[in-house]
Amino acid sequence: MEDNERLIVEVRPRPTGAAVSLVGDLDSTTSSQLLGAAERAFAGHAGRDLVIDAAGLVFCDSVGISTLVQLRQRSDTYGWTFRVEGVQPYVRRVLDLLGLLEYLNAE
């Protein structure tokens, strides 16, 4: 688990791949934590499914949204499926306005 006062990132193995839980702020100063955790998940877990658990996100700016898009693209490159679950209403609204809900498989 990584913790920097603003974002806690935890990678959990799943039978089908890995889940990355986020608690706090996903922004320009914390997005590298998520990217690093996801890369470790791709490299270290059997399976082909990456789930981002966003239920604990308090804040997500444009860099955070861009990071989610990058992770979807990396998942495609590695042949993994990608999903964001627990999307908070304010993030859902932004993703909807940007036309990204379906692309990110946001729930």
What does this structure look like?
The structure is a single chain. The chain is an alpha/beta fold. It has a single domain (2-97), classed as STAS domain (Transcription Regulator spoIIAA). It is built from 3 helices and 5 strands; from the N terminus they run E-E-E-H-E-H-E-H. The protein has helices at residues 31-44, 62-78, 89-97, and strands at residues 2-3, 7-14, 17-26, 49-60, 81-85. A 5-stranded mixed beta sheet has the order 1-2-3-4-5, covered by helices on one side. A hairpin with a 3-residue loop joins strand 1 and strand 2 (7-14). The mean pLDDT is 91.
Helices, strands, pairings?
Blueprint: E1 2-3, E2 7-14, E3 17-26, H1 31-44, E4 49-60, H2 62-78, E5 81-85, H3 89-97
Parallel strand pairs: 3-4, 4-5
Antiparallel strand pairs: 1-2, 2-3
